[in-house]
C-alpha cells in the first residue's frame, strides 16, 4: 500500500519554490508551521503544509458558508476557525472562537445545505442548532436523536445527504471488540441508520435503535460515511476487530482487513439488494492477508470468513448470506473519514493508525481512485489505497507521528485533514496529475 518511491518529504515553502513545483503562492508564507515530529512524506503530485496547531483532539471538520472551518474538538465542543488564505497551501488560523462549549461532543458534525443549521453528536445524542456564520453564534439547541449510549466506540458520525437533503445518516459502532448485541437488530449496535429530519415533529426525538431506516448492520465501527457525488451511492469505512484467532491460530497481525462497504443510493436507484443488509460483524470478517490462515480453502483478499469455520455461520454462509466489502485495507489501519472530490474521481480516506499490530500500520491519508461511482480497483485488490500524506517513520508511531482523523475539501479542491493526537490541521493541494499508480 505504499507509493514511497514517488514520495518526497514535506518541505518548507521556500524549498518548494526551489523545487519549482509551481502552485505554491510565492515564498511569503510567513505563518508556516513545522511539526514537532519528523516531517511527513507527501505523495507524488501534492504539496502539503501544516497550518493549525494547538487544538485539542480535533476530529471532524466542515466549512461553513463564509469559508470558516468548524472543528469538533472531542471532549470540548465546536471551534470556529477563521483562516487567512495566502493562496496554495499558505493558510493560517487568523482567529479562533469557541462556537459550542460542550464536553459531550465526540466526533460528528454537519451543516444543512443553506448553512444555517448545524448538527453535532455526543455518544448518546444528535443535536441541532440554528447557526449564524456572520455572528459566529448558535441558538435553539435541539435534540433530534437519542438512545445511542454504549461503551468503547463513542463516535456518532453524521452525514447529510446532498441528493436527499432531508436525510441524516448516523453511524454507531459496537460496545466492545466482539459485541454480540450487534447480532440483534433491535439493539442499534453497529448500524448505520437514515433519519428523515423533515418528518420529525417539533418536540419529537427519534430513538436510534427503533426509528429511522436501516442502511446496514453488522458494521463493527464504520466511522467514515460518504455519498458518492455522481451516483449518490453511500460508502462507509469500517474499523474491524482486534486480537482475532481462526481455528485457534493467532492471525491478528494482518487480519481481519478494514473494510469499505457499499450501501446503495438513498433513493434506491442502485444496489437496493445490499441496502439494509448485514455486513457480517461479529460473525464474519474480511480477509486481508491469506498468509498463515488455517483452512484457507478458496478464500482470497476480501472474502468473508468465520473465526472457526464451523457451526451455523461458516465461511460459505459468510460469503453467501452477508454483504461483502467493496474493498479491504490493511488490518488495524483504522479508517476514520472518507470524503469524495466533487467529480467523484477520488475518495480520500484518513487511516488513524494501528495499536493491535507489532509493526505500526496506517497513520496516513490515502486516496482511492473511483470511476462511475465505484472504486476502479477490484474487491480483492491490495493496492487500491494510494498514499497522499504519511508518517516518515512508522516505528515512531503513535508517539511521534500525526494521526489522521477528519477531512474537508474547500471550494478550490484543497484537502484539509485533522490530526487528533497532535492537535493539528494540514492542508494539501494537488499540484499535478501523475501517472501510473498515482494520478
Ligand atoms: C465551558 O464550559 C465550562 C463548564 O460549563 C466552563 O467551565 C468553561 O469555562 C467554558 N469554557 C469556555 C471557553 O467558555
Ligand atoms: C453532558 O452529558 C451529561 C450526561 O447526560 C449531562 O448531564 C450534561 O448536562 C451534558 N453537558 C452538556 C454541556 O450538555
Ligand atoms: C433504547 O434502546 C434500547 C435498545 O438498545 C431499547 O430497549 C430501549 O427501549 C430504548 N429506550 C428508549 C427510552 O426508547
Ligand atoms: C421526508 O419526509 C417528508 C415528509 O413526510 C417527505 O415529503 C419526504 O419525501 C421524505 N424524504 C425522503 C427522502 O423520503
Ligand atoms: C456451512 O453451513 C451451512 C449451514 O449450516 C451448511 O449447510 C453447509 O453444509 C456448511 N458448509 C460447510 C462446508 O461445512
Ligand atoms: C475530476 O477533477 C479533477 C480535479 O479537478 C480533474 O483533474 C479531473 O480531470 C476530473 N476528472 C473528470 C473525469 O472529470
UniProtKB/TrEMBL annotation:
Signal peptide interval: 1-26
InterPro entries xrefs: 6-blade_b-propeller_TolB-like, Beta-prop_PDH, Quinoprot_gluc/sorb_DH_b-prop, SMP-30/CGR1_Lactonase
Protein known as: Pyrroloquinoline quinone-dependent pyranose dehydrogenase beta-propeller domain-containing protein
This protein's UniProt keywords: Signal
Keyword Transit peptide: no
Lineage: Eukaryota, Fungi, Dikarya, Ascomycota, Pezizomycotina
Membrane keyword on record: no
A Pfam family matched in the record: TrAA12
The organism of origin for this protein: Cercophora scortea
Annotated Pyrroloquinoline quinone-dependent pyranose dehydrogenase beta-propeller domain residues: 41-430
Amino acid at each position: 500500500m505504499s507509493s514511497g518511491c514517488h514520495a518526497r518529504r514535506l518541505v518548507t515553502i521556500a524549498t518548494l519554490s526551489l523545487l519549482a513545483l509551481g502552485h505554491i503562492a510565492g515564498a511569503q508564507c510567513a505563518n508556516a508551521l513545522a511539526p514537532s515530529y519528523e516531517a511527513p512524506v507527501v505523495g507524488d503530485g501534492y504539496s502539503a503544509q501544516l497550518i493549525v496547531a494547538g487544538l485539542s483532539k480535533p476530529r471532524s471538520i466542515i466549512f461553513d458558508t463564509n469559508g470558516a472551518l468548524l472543528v469538533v474538538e472531542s471532549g470540548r465542543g465546536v471551534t470556529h476557525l477563521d483562516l487567512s488564505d495566502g493562496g496554495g497551501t499558505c493558510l493560517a488560523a487568523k482567529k479562533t472562537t469557541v462556537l459550542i462549549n460542550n464536553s459531550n461532543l465526540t466526533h460528528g458534525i454537519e451543516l444543512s445545505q443553506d448553512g444555517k443549521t448545524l448538527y453535532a453528536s455526543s455518544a448518546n445524542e444528535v443535536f441541532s442548532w440554528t447557526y449564524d456564520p456572520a455572528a459566529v453564534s448558535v441558538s435553539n439547541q435541539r435534540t433530534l436523536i437519542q438512545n445511542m449510549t454504549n461503551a468503547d466506540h463513542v463516535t456518532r458520525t453524521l452525514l447529510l445527504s446532498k441528493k436527499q437533503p432531508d436525510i441524516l445518516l448516523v453511524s454507531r459502532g459496537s460496545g466492545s471488540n466482539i459485541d454480540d448485541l450487534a447480532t440483534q437488530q433491535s439493539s442499534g449496535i453497529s448500524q448505520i441508520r437514515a433519519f428523515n429530519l423533515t418528518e420529525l415533529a417539533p418536540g419529537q426525538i427519534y430513538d436510534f435503535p427503533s426509528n429511522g431506516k436501516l442502511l446496514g448492520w453488522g458494521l463493527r465501527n464504520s466511522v467514515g460515511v460518504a455519498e458518492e457525488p455522481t451516483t449518490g451511492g453511500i460508502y462507509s469505512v469500517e474499523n474491524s476487530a482486534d486480537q482475532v484467532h481462526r481455528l485457534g491460530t493467532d492471525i491478528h497481525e494482518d487480519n481481519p482487513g478494514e473494510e469499505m462497504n457499499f450501501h446503495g443510493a438513498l433513493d434506491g436507484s442502485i444496489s437496493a439488494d445490499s441496502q439494509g443488509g448485514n455486513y457480517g460483524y461479529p460473525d464474519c470478517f474480511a480477509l486481508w492477508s491469506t498468509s498463515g490462515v488455517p483452512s484457507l480453502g478458496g478464500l482470497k483478499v476480501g472474502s468473508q470468513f468465520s473465526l472457526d469455520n464451523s457451526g451455523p455461520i461458516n465461511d460459505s454462509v459468510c460469503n453467501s448470506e452477508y454483504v461483502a466489502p467493496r474493498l479491504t485495507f490493511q488490518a488495524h489501519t483504522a479508517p476514520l473519514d472518507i470524503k469524495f472530490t466533487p467529480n467523484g474521481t477520488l475518495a480520500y480516506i484518513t487511516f488513524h493508525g494501528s495499536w493491535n499490530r507489532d509493526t505500526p500500520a496506517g497513520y496516513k491519508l490515502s486516496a482511492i481512485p473511483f470511476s462511475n461511482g465505484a472504486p476502479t480497483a477490484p474487491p480483492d485488490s491490495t493496492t487500491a489505497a494510494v498514499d497522499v500524506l504519511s508518517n516518515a517513520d512508522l516505528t515512531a508511531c503513535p508517539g511521534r507521528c500525526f494521526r489522521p482523523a477528519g477531512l474537508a475539501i474547500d471550494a478550490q479542491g484543497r484537502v484539509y485533514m485533522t490530526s487528533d493526537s497532535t492537535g493539528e490541521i494540514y492542508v494539501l493541494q494537488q499540484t499535478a496529475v501523475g501517472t501510473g499508480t498515482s494520478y
